[in-house]
Write a structure and sequence with these properties.
heterodimer, A: alpha/beta, Rossmann fold, six-stranded parallel sheet, 22 helices, 20 strands, 37% helix, 17% strand, B: alpha+beta, Alpha-Beta Plaits, 2 domains, five-stranded antiparallel sheet, four-stranded antiparallel sheet, ACT_dom (chain B), branched-chain amino acid biosynthesis (chain B), Acetalactate_synth_ssu (chain B), amino-acid biosynthesis (chain B), transferase (chain B)
């Protein structure tokens, strides 16, 4: 066996594991690793401008390619800056491996320069983490970390490597980590559960599929199986924010997203259903609304690879612990084997059509100002026929993008759902572009959230990533302002974006193309110019300042209490509702 | 607006884990992070090769909360097995306490008499004090300590619960 340094072992493991790109930022405690990466023939290192940017780039890369994202940062501030992205990846089940430098083992605990207790800090915001105290352990840990990050319910794994462990040497051998002593996620559902699920679906008169990010995580085959199962059963489909694209929005069976800013038909169908088939979703509070009024008359099947997601907020009748893709394929096979035919759901579909007729996503026409919903609709229309990946920041623009940009394929929609991280979308777009060099990658952003990681303008230029940054600029933290209008009688406490930069000049200062769209008559041409201009382009799209995102289930309300337009808004709220997230 | 507290029942959980650095922080921290209660916690390695530890946790919560605690423990990477001893059927639970009592005359004789009834052992003595060692379920130890309070209790050390399923398996 060859004797190698810890840094060499680490990089060799990354090569062996098929890693092509690492998002990182150097510093004292990772210098030995950076020296190995110097002019490395196989691994491309992307130098970010802030470690949080690296984590979101890794997330964007992972979500759009299905491969794990890899991050390399230094000790102390390098690690603490990465924590938001690590937590984001945990909440949204994104496979990610974060390598952090650490002070030398004999200095740990001495408050050394740039020392932080990284394993302590990341213990509860990672799927798993390691402090590697010997180079002889390193190969095993790195392989195991990738195994854990990418299997079961995916998530971030942190490997903290002291500097002396990077320098010291040990014999190197490729380890086998597939037979873990305690980590064995259940991938395949018990046959009895599949059979029971099939019987419940076949008997249902008002069934609905409620799908989530788990279907995307399970790979394109899972989306294909979902489509087949829906075709076989004839049931309607809704999905969470994270699950958009697993089922085609162009299908007649598609009801749109559900939840707080979901469609009228999706939320009413959930409320009136007699069977909910939840696949790879977790009954999040943004989806259920008031729990005691959530789908009161339905039986519920919950397919999830994480047992702790089952019966966490909503009690279900049939839990199926399995990978979404495996379970969906089993359901398709079992449905066919049982000789079931699609039930006559015409009465159910007639009711759904009644709810659809409400047209809950309608919005007022442009006046002298561009309606933000219209800007998204134009963006959607202008990108037909192209391979588009959309990322978003967090806020009103995110919900408008989810409502008005329609996805027919998985892995094309990247957004921060669980943690709701402002600053996610722009770096995620750069990461997605790295993994999909030929795609048209567009970040839909707001004027406030884009500033949270605006420094990555430099990264995009350095690596010639032709991302498009489409800012819906209403000079507000729009979602905060909307809640203040709805809940606090329009007292806009600190939600106005004062002292905004000139985004076009800022873009130009970094070597980007900057475009400003000021009115409805410029919208179509401006978007076309953005798409046709090579290289990275920032668009400062000025939109109506006080638009609200509807429909909306107010905090603490039931699915059937949706607000469809501003005339239904009272401007006050009970304390019980104010206290909810 | 007021905040309601949920009803709680007591459960003894037995958790086998890989004996590695940080494992206790991982388990205890999960309880804190998710707002669960720890009434008692014991941990020690239980195999000849020192690779596996058993953690016994006494917790309390509504049945749904206990079910969530089990699931959350089970998905931690170094956790091998989680058993809810309270739900699982008959089980034994024991803890050990050291109880120091100081006094002379009638109090000293009475302390000795009660210790005998509780099968507590004397592990240290001076002419004016005893240290008793007592083993048993939590309520027996609670009772013994409350009796000693009247007889010159000085201090108490308790191990917390260890538990095991009754029978062959």
């Amino acid at each position: 066996m060859a004797e190698m340094s810890g840094a060499d072992i680490l990089v060799q493991c990354l090569v062996d594991l098929g890693v092509e790109v690492v998002f990182g930022y150097p510093g004292g405690a990772v210098l030995p690793i950076y020296d190995v990466l110097y002019n490395h023939p196989k691994i491309k290192h992307v130098l970010v401008r802030h470690e949080q940017g690296a984590t979101h780039m890794a997330e964007g890369y992972a979500r759009s390619t299905g491969k794990p994202g890899v991050v390399l940062v230094t000790s102390g501030p390098g690690a603490t800056n990465a924590i938001t992205g690590i937590t984001d990846a945990l909440m949204d089940s994104i496979p990610m491996v974060v390598i952090t430098g650490q002070v030398a083992t004999h200095l740990i605990g001495s408050d050394a320069f740039q020392e932080a207790d990284t394993v302590g800090l990341t213990r509860h915001c990672s799927k798993h983490n390691y402090l590697v105290k010997s180079p002889a352990r390193l190969a095993h840990v790195v392989h195991e970390a990738f195994h854990i990050a990418t299997t079961g319910r995916p998530g971030p794994v942190v490997i903290d490597i002291p500097k002396n462990v990077q320098v010291a040497t040990a014999p190197f051998e490729t380890p086998d980590v597939t037979n873990h002593a305690s980590y064995r996620p259940q991938v395949k559902a018990p046959a009895a559960d599949i059979a029971a699920a099939i019987e419940m679906i076949a008997k249902a008169e008002r069934p609905i599929f409620y799908t989530g990010g788990g279907v995307i995580n399970a790979g394109p085959e899972a989306s294909a199986s979902l489509r087949e199962l829906v075709e076989l059963t004839g049931a309607p489909v809704t999905s969470t924010l994270m699950g958009l694209g697993a089922f085609p929005a162009s299908s007649l069976r598609w009801l749109g997203m559900l939840g707080m800013h979901g469609t009228y038909e999706a939320n009413w169908a959930m409320n009136k259903a007699d069977l909910i088939v939840c696949v790879g979703a977790r009954f999040d509070d943004r989806v259920t609304g008031r729990l005691d009024a959530f789908s009161p008359d339905s039986k519920k099947i919950h397919i999830d690879i994480d047992r702790s997601s089952v019966n966490k907020t909503v009690m279900v009748d049939l839990p199926v612990i399995a990978d979404a893709g495996s379970a969906l394929a089993d359901l398709v096979a079992a449905w066919k084997a049982a000789g079931h035919k699609a039930a006559d759901l015409s009465e159910w579909w007639a009711r759904i059509d009644g709810w659809r007729a409400v047209n809950s996503l309608k919005y007022p026409p442009d006046t002298t100002e561009i309606m933000p919903q219209h800007a998204i609709a134009e963006l959607f229309a202008a990108t037909r026929g192209k391979d588009v990946i959309i990322t978003t920041e967090v806020g009103q623009h995110q919900m408008w993008a989810a409502q008005h940009f329609h996805f027919d394929e998985p892995n094309k929609w990247l957004t921060s759902g669980g943690l709701g991280t402002m600053g996610y979308g722009f770096p995620a777009a750069i990461g997605a572009q790295m993994g999909n060099p030929d795609s048209l990658v567009i970040c839909v952003a707001g004027d406030a959230s884009v500033q949270m990681n605006i420094q990555e303008l430099g990264t995009a230029i350095q690596y010639r990533t032709p991302v498009k940054l489409f800012i819906l600029n209403n000079e507000y933290m729009g979602m905060v302002r909307q809640w203040q209008e709805l809940t606090y009688e329009s007292r806009y406490s600190n939600s106005y974006s004062d002292s905004l930069p000139d985004f076009v000049k800022l873009a130009q200062a970094y070597g980007w193309t900057g475009i400003r769209i000021e009115g409805p008559q410029e919208l179509e041409a401006g978007i076309r110019q953005m798409i046709e201009t090579p290289g990275p382009v920032l668009v400062d799209c000025r939109v109506a300042k006080l638009s609200n995102c509807f429909p909306m289930i107010p905090s603490g309300a039931a699915h059937t209490e949706m607000l469809l337009d501003p005339s239904q808004v009272s401007g006050t709220m009970a304390d019980e509702a104010k206290a909810l997230v | 607006m007021h905040i309601d507290e949920e009803l709680r029942e007591r459960h003894v959980l037995s958790i086998t884990v890989t004996n590695e650095a940080g494992i206790l922080a991982r388990i205890a921290g999960m309880f804190t992070a998710r707002g669960y209660n720890i009434d008692s916690l014991t941990v020690a390695d239980i195999t000849a090769d020192h690779q596996i530890s058993r953690i016994t946790i006494v917790t309390s919560g509504a049945p749904r909360t206990i079910d969530q605690i089990m699931a959350q423990l089970d998905r931690l990477v170094p956790v091998h097995k989680v058993v809810d001893l309270t739900e699982n059927g008959p089980f034994v639970e024991r803890e050990l306490a050291l109880v120091k009592v100081a006094g002379t005359g009638e109090h000293r004789i009475e302390a000795m008499r009660i210790a005998d009834i509780f099968r507590a052992k004397v592990v240290d003595t001076t002419t004016e004090s005893f240290v008793f060692e007592i083993t048993g379920p939590t309520d027996k130890i609670d009772t013994f300590i409350s009796l000693m309070r009247e007889l010159g209790l000085v201090e108490v050390g308790r191990t917390g619960i260890v538990g095991m399923v009754r029978g062959k398996a």
